[in-house]
């Protein structure tokens, strides 16, 4: 392995927390979804790195599943985003609080 | 003669009650009253026909077994001996006249079916007491008269105070009943039997202390039914019922039951001299108390109610002095003239436009001389006119108390003398206020139904001539009742004729003194001059207030403490506290789910931070 695992993990962690920061600070639904994607990618990177380091294929398999899951999630999320934009005329996440307890 | 025919005596009134109770509203008005009168009159006729069965030892007969268990045997059994036979004759006879009177009196009432059913049931319950051959059956009748008095005193239940008076009578007499029930159970536990002859025969086995306790318990029961101190507060209020009911309660049933009980079980009573002294003292104090109260009453029926209490007190003195025949003698004469007085009072009330207040009457003699003469006859018996029935019976009791003394009985005798004077005074006060002078109020013209008038003369004759029932030898009589009762007549009385005449002279003097005092004060209406003493006596020595303060208020306070102090504050407070605490916590938690995406996301992050922190901790420890 050319790149040391610590570098990969540090990079993956940085990606994860940058995505997290995006999710927490943004109010726009699309930006929140993008943040979630970045977080998932960070997690996937860590999995691939670990898989290469230990010469085990499990992590890579998991990443493939992750990508399938993500594409499904993105397609549904985008459909909801379009629906919400049409019905409410806004994508501000704070405006959608009808499900309060 | 078949002994079981005796059961017709109580069962005929029961049959009358059943007919009126089940079918009464479908029957014409005349038939309802007719059935009731016929039932009681038939019962009277049967008593007369079967009279020979009661001679000597009497007759005991059983219809069936009511209760049988380990050692316990209570039958539907009748004991028809001189005591119960003479009592049954008086009960049925006087009740018949009262029923006849009631038909006239209740002429304009709506639901006479209920009235006559209860009236008949009342007589049935009283006859059960009188004729029962065991204490449990007696107790059944004892409760029966309590129930019927409740229904009849509160007969006009649409007015709340009438219903309250009925309830009060029921509850106050129930207090006494509890004591009687204990006495009956104690007697059964001690003697193994509840049959009255067995109890009377075996009473000698009782330990002296147990006998005293049992007699005192029976005295408490008798006090409740006979309205003696301290359970007397229900009787003045019982005047809320229709007048025939008052006559029935005061003359033939209910209040005489207590005296009859003590006479019936006299062999037990006689075992305990302290308890007999207690009986005499209760009677004497009640006689005095009620006589003073009667002095100040304004309602005609309340005067009579207090006089009943007072006269029953005399009967208790008689029992306490051991003179069972004397007590029964006074019971009989009192039944006659008190029924007469109440029925006369009903006539007076009708004549005065349903007015009860004697201060607003006056001049009734001119309106109805017949009622006046009848009422006067009753009043003279009550006041103790020499040679009337009331005079002989009261004199007999005072004589017994005097000659059996000294000690407590002498005090009872003195109180009795004072009460006799007061009796004369308040009786003539009543007579003057009601009948003398001019009417103090404008009145309409009334005619009384014949049934209300013609039932009075027989009672007047019986009352005035009642002395012949038990005329003492000093006056040339043979003490018929005393000899008839035989072994049941109580302790023998040894007294010389000089003492007897001296006491009779004193009694006659007190009668004259009371009459004179009333003449001086009331021959012209003095007007209403209320003062504190009169107010005190009018309220019956504030007995109701005393009961209210000493019993009811503490009881209510305890009730309120249990309800508001314990139940509401403690139990519901703790449970409510738990509930509202949980609710508040739930509300706090509910705020977390505010529906905002960012809140949930921040929740995730905090979770993540906790997990990471945990991992760091674990790492740091290795």
UniProtKB/TrEMBL annotation, chain A:
Keywords linked to the UniProt accession:
Cell inner membrane, Cell membrane, Membrane, NAD, Quinone, Translocase, Transmembrane, Transmembrane helix, Transport, Ubiquinone
- Major place of residence: membrane
Q: Where in the cell is it found?
A: Cell membrane; Membrane
Q: Which family does it belong to?
A: Belongs to the complex I subunit 4L family.
Q: Subunit structure, briefly?
A: NDH-1 is composed of 14 different subunits. Subunits NuoA, H, J, K, L, M, N constitute the membrane sector of the complex.
- What protein name does the entry list? NADH-quinone oxidoreductase subunit K
Origin species: Desulfuromonas versatilis
What EC numbers are recorded for this enzyme? Answer: 7.1.1.-
Q: How does it sit in the membrane?
A: Multi-pass membrane protein
Question: Where would you find the membrane-spanning parts of this chain?
Answer: 6-24, 31-54, 60-84
Residues folding into a coiled coil are none
Q: Which InterPro entries match?
A: NADH_UbQ_OxRdtase_chain4L/K, NUOK/Mnh_C1-like
Tell me what reaction this enzyme catalyses.
a quinone + NADH + 5 H(+)(in) = a quinol + NAD(+) + 4 H(+)(out)
Automatic annotation (TrEMBL), chain B:
Taking every annotated instance into account, which residue ranges of this chain make up the domain NADH-Ubiquinone oxidoreductase (complex I) chain 5 N-terminal? 66-116
Membrane topology type, per the record?
A: Multi-pass membrane protein
Gene3D superfamilies in the record, alphabetically? 1.20.5.2700
Where does this one sit in the cell? Endomembrane system; Membrane
Look up the signal peptide feature and give its range: none
Q: Which UniProt keywords apply?
A: Membrane, Transmembrane, Transmembrane helix
Which residue range or ranges hold the NADH:quinone oxidoreductase/Mrp antiporter transmembrane domain? Answer: 132-412
Q: Which domain of life is it from?
A: Bacteria
Q: Where are the transmembrane segments?
A: 31-51, 86-103, 115-132, 138-158, 178-196, 202-224, 245-269, 275-296, 303-323, 329-349, 370-391, 411-435, 447-469, 501-522, 601-620
What NCBIfam families does this protein's entry cite? NDH_I_L, PRK06590.1
What is this protein called in UniProt? Answer: NADH-quinone oxidoreductase subunit L
Question: Species name for this entry?
Answer: Desulfuromonas versatilis
Kindly list the organism's lineage.
Answer: Bacteria, Pseudomonadati, Thermodesulfobacteriota, Desulfuromonadia, Desulfuromonadales
């Amino acid at each position: 392995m050319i790149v040391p695992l610590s570098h990969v993990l540090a990079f993956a962690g940085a990606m994860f927390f940058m995505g997290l920061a995006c999710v927490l600070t943004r109010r726009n639904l699309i930006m929140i979804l993008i943040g979630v994607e970045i977080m998932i990618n960070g997690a996937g990177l860590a999995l691939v790195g670990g898989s290469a380091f230990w010469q085990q294929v499990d992590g890579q398999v998991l990443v493939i599943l992750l990508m399938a899951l993500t594409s499904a999630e993105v397609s549904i999320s985008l459909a909801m985003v379009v629906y919400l934009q049409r019905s409410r005329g806004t994508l501000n996440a704070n405006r959608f609080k009808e499900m309060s307890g | 003669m078949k002994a079981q025919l005796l059961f017709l005596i109580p069962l005929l009134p029961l049959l009358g009650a059943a007919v009126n109770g089940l079918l009464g509203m479908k029957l014409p008005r005349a038939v309802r009253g007719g059935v009731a009168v016929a039932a009681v009159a038939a019962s009277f006729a049967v008593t007369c026909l079967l009279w020979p069965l009661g001679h000597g030892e009497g007759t005991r007969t059983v219809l069936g077994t009511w209760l049988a268990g380990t050692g316990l045997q209570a039958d539907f059994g009748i004991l028809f001996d001189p005591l119960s036979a003479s009592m049954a004759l008086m009960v049925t006879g006087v009740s018949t006249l009262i029923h006849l009177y009631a038909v006239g009196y209740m002429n304009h009432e709506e639901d006479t079916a209920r009235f006559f059913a209860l009236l008949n049931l009342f007589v049935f319950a009283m006859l059960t007491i009188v004729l029962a051959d065991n204490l449990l059956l007696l107790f059944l009748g004892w409760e029966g008269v309590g129930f019927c008095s409740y229904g009849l005193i509160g007969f006009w239940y649409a007015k709340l105070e009438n219903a309250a008076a009925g309830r009060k009578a029921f509850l106050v007499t129930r207090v006494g009943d509890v004591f009687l029930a204990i006495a009956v159970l104690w007697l059964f536990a001690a003697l193994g039997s509840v049959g009255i002859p067995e109890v009377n025969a075996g009473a000698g086995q009782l330990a002296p202390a147990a006998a005293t306790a049992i007699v005192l318990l029976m005295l408490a029961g008798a006090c409740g039914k006979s309205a003696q101190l301290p359970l007397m507060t229900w009787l003045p209020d019982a005047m809320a019922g229709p007048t025939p009911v008052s006559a029935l309660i005061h003359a033939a049933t209910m209040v005489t039951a207590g005296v009859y009980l003590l006479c019936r079980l006299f062999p037990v009573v006689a075992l305990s001299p302290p308890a007999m002294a207690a009986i005499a003292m209760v009677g004497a104090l009640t006689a005095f108390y009620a006589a003073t109260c009667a002095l100040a009453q304004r309602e005609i029926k309340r005067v009579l109610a207090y006089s009943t209490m007072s006269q029953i007190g005399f009967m208790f003195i008689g029992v306490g002095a051991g003179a069972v025949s004397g007590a029964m003698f006074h019971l009989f004469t009192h039944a006659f003239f008190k029924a007469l007085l109440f029925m006369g009072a009903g006539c007076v009330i009708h004549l005065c436009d349903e007015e009860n207040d004697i201060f607003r009457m006056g001049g009734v003699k001119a309106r109805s001389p017949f009622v006046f003469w009848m009422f006067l006859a009753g009043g003279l018996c009550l006041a103790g006119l020499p040679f009337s029935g009331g005079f002989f019976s009261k004199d007999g009791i005072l004589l017994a108390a005097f000659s059996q003394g000294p000690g407590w009985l002498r005090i009872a005798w003195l109180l009795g003398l004072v009460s006799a004077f007061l009796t004369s005074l308040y009786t003539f006060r009543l007579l003057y206020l009601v009948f003398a002078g001019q009417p103090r109020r404008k009145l309409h013209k009334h005619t009384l139904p014949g049934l209300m008038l013609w039932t009075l003369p027989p009672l007047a004759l019986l009352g005035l001539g009642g002395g012949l029932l038990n005329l003492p030898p000093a006056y040339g009589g043979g003490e018929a009742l005393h000899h008839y009762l035989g072994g049941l007549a109580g302790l023998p009385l040894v007294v010389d004729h000089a003492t007897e005449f001296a006491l009779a002279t004193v009694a006659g003097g007190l009668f004259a003194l009371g009459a004179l005092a009333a003449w001086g004060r009331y021959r012209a209406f003095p007007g209403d001059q209320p003062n504190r003493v009169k107010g005190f006596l009018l309220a019956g020595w504030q007995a109701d207030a005393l009961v209210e303060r000493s019993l009811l208020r503490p009881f209510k306070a305890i009730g309120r403490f249990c309800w508001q102090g314990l139940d509401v504050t403690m139990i519901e407070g703790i449970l409510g506290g738990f509930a509202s605490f949980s609710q508040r916590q739930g509300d706090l938690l509910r705020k977390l789910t505010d529906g905002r995406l960012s809140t949930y996301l921040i929740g995730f992050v905090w979770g993540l931070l906790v997990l990471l922190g945990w991992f760091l901790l674990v790492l740091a420890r290795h």
